[in-house]
Amino acid sequence: MSEEPKVGVFVCHCGMNIAGTISVKEVVEYSKTLPHVVEAKEYLFMCSAPGQDLIKESVKKSGLNRVVVAACSPSMHEPTFRRAVEEAGLNQYLLEMVNIREQSSWVHSDEKQKATEQTKDLIRMAVAKASLLEPLEDLRFGVQPAALILGGGVAGLRASLDLAERGYRVHLVEELPTLGGRAARLGKLAHVDMRGPEMVGSLIKAVVSNPNVTAHVNSEVTGLDGSVGYFKANIRYKPRFVDAKCTLCGECFRVCPVEVPNEYEFGISKRRAIYLPFKEAYPPVAVIDSETCTRCGECVKVCEPHAIDLDETGHDQEAIAGGVILATGFSPYEPPEGEYGYGRSKRVLTLFQLERLLDEGGPTGGELILEGSTPRTLAFIMCVGSLGTTKNAHQYCSRMCCASALKNMLRIKDRYPETEIYAIYKDIRTYGRGDEKLYEGAAEHLVKFIMFDTPPTVNMRSEKLEVEVHDATLQEDLLIPVDAVVLAVGMSPSQSLPKVRNVVKVGCSPEGFLREAHLKLRPVEAPSDGIFFAGSVTSPKNVIESVMAGSASAAKAAALFGKEEVRIEPMIAQVTEEICSGCAICIAMCPYGAISRKQKGEKRVAEVDKALCKACGACVATCPSGAMQQAGFKDVQMMAQIAALTEKRGA
Amino acid sequence: MMDKPKIAMYWCASCGGCEEATVDIAERILDLVNVVDIVFWPVALDFKEKDVEKLPDGSIAASLINGGVRVTDHEHMVKILRRKSKIVVAYGACSAWGGIPGLCNLYAEREFLERAYHEVPTVDNPQRLTPQRSVTVEGVELTLPEVLPRLLPLNRVIDVDYYVPGCPPTADVTWRAVQILLSGNLPPKGSVIGASEKSLCDECPLNETKPDKVLIQDLKRPYEVIADPEKCLLTQGLLCLGPATRGGCGALCVKARMPCTGCFGPLDRVSDYGAKAASFIASILDFQDEEAIEKVIDRLPDPVGTFYRYTLASSSLGGKARRK
Amino acid sequence: MSGQFEPKIALFACNWCTYAALDLAGTSRMKYPPNFRVIRVMCSGRIDPQFVVEAFRDGADGVLVAGCHLGDCHYIEGNYKALRRMTLLRKMLENMGIEKERLRLEWISASEAARFVQIAREMVEQIKTLGPLAPRLQVNA
């Protein structure tokens, strides 16, 4: 800044709100004595039209180039005075406000002289800072009206449909060879008369038939550049090795020599290396698991439509979007081997596995058959992996397991009325609509509820399993022989999160899920603008809650797409490259991932992404060499403000 | 033949390292003595204060002064040199910012006299003798200079034109500074000359080994770690102040596996080196609760000495606040 | 001295929480001692220890650094950085003869006007007992 600062100070009476305590005349006269102050004026209501005119005229007549307004809180009228300053022909950021109403007059009305002294100090400090203010321009970015959605489960599908129906382009990317997510592996749902695949199927049908949606199945986003308004994604198609000519005749399944546990049945049955994930999978095309395929070629021989190409390679495709929705779901809690006998006995299974057994579309056609027989006595151990019950367990409650377990208990009682069921729980949280009825129903069907403080143990004595538990209500030790144990496992953060976070700059909560901008006020937004969350990616949720979140994130994304441009306040961090040594200390300081190292000649320097920087200044205070500064809050400006705390001799 | 430019060199509260550093330019000193006329250099030549007093004002082209201003004699001499010189250069960390002797500003005179003459375990002083201001010997009064209330960096006593950083400045930095002074093409007054405009990381061979995010879990003392010479020392838990310290030394200490202690001082935009260095180190401690933070900070026996090692005297507070 | 000594306390207030609490104290017409001089920053994470030592040098008898509660920072984790820096700085200041009570770090949310008033009164009383700092600093201007 080469020009000499010419500061105008404008002191507002605010009726009696300020003038009733502070001697405005004294303050105005004092202001005139300050360095660089050319003019000081007062007015009754500075925010009024004549008040603003006073400022504008002073600027023009006296050639002011910096304005200090001592009045109410900037939260009230900073925009007002910024506009006035701009209308006077000055950059709107050459304004500094001093809060002498809320923070002086109103709180020190009993100490008028001291309040006046305080006001003088504050104005002196503001003038010192204002003298060093620089003109700044708002940052503007155009918005691409398209969404990139990661995750084809219920949340991602709901968000895709909502956005597509509003006319926005959607790129839906799913890493598995089928859409549907976890909900597609549920059997009959609670409270609604349909199975998981049917519910999801209706969503899938609507999504894939909408011309605005491109579903990239068996694909991953391997790179994401850009920021709110304009993201460029690289979508990598993993080879399926089978194309759309597939008629699902099933001949290839017959001849494939490889057998592996079927992850879509949670390991309780097997599949081949060439397989269809499940009957209702979308797309309805077989796929080859390249990790277990031996490339023997038997399937190719029997494929009549010649749909198989073992040499297919993946390919990359670019997609442009204005916003990104992360809907990558959760992973079921996997008990470590030995926890409640898991992995040691085939008759200790998880809730997810039980769900498959009871599903008519499952490997047993819906018959509860374990190792050839139907268990007569079952123990459900609840809160597995949740509520801090065991060493590996999460501290939180996983929300959906109580209702889910009770639903299945009732199904078993319905089909096999003679079955004895024990529900061994730390807590029962049937909070959802209709869920309390599940609990009451279970009690009516004589499910025996046993509460524990210390988690039970499962002993294996030859054929039988025994559950040992200290009943916390009766204060008695119980030993229960059972035929099978079902572990109501909770929800863990998705195992794909490290991969996702490698590509998208989002942070984690202490529990390991992705962290939202504000738990209560902004639950479906990431701290970084333009990135949204849907479903269990941020915390355990049931299907209802996941679908709600999907719609919520779509609404947020749509609000973004509806704007032509995004305007951002310019008080962002800036690097002076001539001083930056590339020490990289600043990078870890930014919670928004706005700082990176860029090549400059032979060395690297820090670079701030203007669209991502939220202007907090944390990197600035950390920067060891002073190369990083914050526009509007530079070190020199702040230090000048502080240095004016006390009147200096001759200052 | 034109007169050779006159050069003076003086030492205040100094360890003598800066004098040696000047000589460290080795063979280049022969080139130097050919082009300049040294009119005052107490460590090496026999000129006295009265010889300097006799010179016309402004006739010395440049005075290079090292050491912090600690006693009245120093104050007196540097003021004379200022009058007699066109350019005054604060040479070395002590004259630039107070240096290590500046740490004495944490103590009052009686405290450090007590320490030096009585408390130190290797001192044998059964009669409890303490230096006195004056003594009369055979009818003649002999006096010692008075100790100033605080050690001052040179620029708090006289106007300083340029600064050459380092404890001591390296031979290369010294030579570069001398060349600049003799070039006739002088940088803006108040500049640091001979060194870099960027922090040490710019020339450190280990900078590129840093991960994208630099966060540390512990602060280790140099004796606790055998440092891996291929990895940034800060990432190994050593308190390397390289990021906050001006470069130009060629990263000598780091190349010898010792973390930088900050002897080249702050960059231009930093007003208080110790506060800034403490800021960046504290910021990258990967802890979220006060107890854990305090625990790791307690591993530092002397944070003031660590962060203000060379700059306490020139810092915002200058030393310890003292009840009168 | 203590009868007439009015401490001057620099208050670094974060825009979203503390500054809003100060405004709320105003609109609620609460009363607290007029010893504070507010310096507004967007986040407590912007507060450089250089600001604090400069404030003491320039006449502050006390410094109050205030931001959002941990976990509630408008910018996610700026206040954690403030916590780390001020913890180290306070230890250093103590070794430099500035009592640790003179540098106070508080988390004040936008609704906690009453709590701010209590802290303000407490701090002013405490600094009055400690006495003025300026005469003890032998700083050349």
Task: List the keywords.
heterotrimer, A: 651 residues, alpha/beta, Rossmann fold, FAD/NAD(P)-binding domain, 4 domains, 5-stranded parallel beta sheet, 16 helices, 32 strands, 26% helix, 25% strand, C: 141 residues, 4-stranded parallel beta sheet, 4 helices, 4 strands, 16% strand
Give an overview of the whole structure.
The complex is a heterotrimer of chains A (651), B (324) and C (141). Chain A folds into four domains: 7-136, Rossmann fold (3-Layer(aba) Sandwich), CATH 3.40.50; 146-238 and 314-329 and 495-561, FAD/NAD(P)-binding domain (3-Layer(bba) Sandwich), CATH 3.50.50; 332-492, FAD/NAD(P)-binding domain (3-Layer(bba) Sandwich); 570-631, Alpha-Beta Plaits (2-Layer Sandwich). Helix content of chain A is 26%, strand content 25%. Chain A is built from 16 helices and 32 strands. The two termini of chain A are 21 Å apart. Chain B has 324 residues and is of the alpha/beta class. Chain B has three domains: 6-100 and 148-183, Rossmann fold (3-Layer(aba) Sandwich), CATH 3.40.50; 106-147, no CATH class; 200-314, no CATH class. Chain B has a five-stranded parallel beta sheet, sandwiched between helices. In chain B, strands 4-8 form a two-stranded antiparallel ribbon. The longest helix of chain B is centred in the N-terminal third of the chain and has 13 residues, at 72-84. Chain C is of the alpha/beta class. Chain C has one domain (9-133): 3-Layer(aba) Sandwich (Rossmann fold), CATH 3.40.50. Chain C is built from four helices and four strands. Classes of the chains: A alpha/beta (651), B alpha/beta (324), C alpha/beta (141).
What is the fold's blueprint, element by element?
The complex is a heterotrimer of chains A (651), B (324) and C (141).
Chain A lengths: L6 E6 L11 H9 L4 E7 L5 H14 L3 E6 L2 H14 L7 E5 L1 H5 L6 H19 L8 E4 L3 E5 L3 H12 L3 E6 L21 H13 L4 E5 L1 E9 L2 E8 L13 H5 L3 E3 L8 E3 L1 E2 L11 E2 L9 H5 L12 E7 L1 E4 L3 E3 L15 E3 H8 L18 E8 L16 H15 L4 E6 L9 H10 L3 E4 L5 E5 L2 E8 L4 E7 L1 E6 L1 E3 L3 H7 L27 E3 L9 H19 L3 E4 L4 E3 L19 E6 L2 E6 L9 H5 L5 E3 L4 H9 L8
Parallel strand pairs in A: 1-2, 1-3, 3-4, 6-7, 6-16, 7-8, 16-27, 18-25, 19-20, 19-25, 20-21
Antiparallel strand pairs in A: 5-28, 9-10, 10-15, 11-12, 13-14, 17-26, 22-23, 23-24, 29-32, 30-31
Helix pairs in contact in A: 1-5, 2-3, 5-16, 6-7, 6-14, 10-11, 11-12
Chain B lengths: L5 E6 L5 H7 L4 H8 L1 E4 L8 H6 L5 E7 L2 E3 H13 E7 L1 H5 L11 H11 L14 E4 L2 E4 L3 E6 L9 E3 L6 H13 L68 H4 L17 H11 L6 H8 L5 H5 L17
Chain C lengths: L8 E6 L3 H10 L8 E6 L7 H9 L4 E6 L10 H18 L7 E5 L5 H18 L11
Parallel strand pairs in C: 1-2, 1-3, 3-4
Helix pairs in contact in C: 1-4
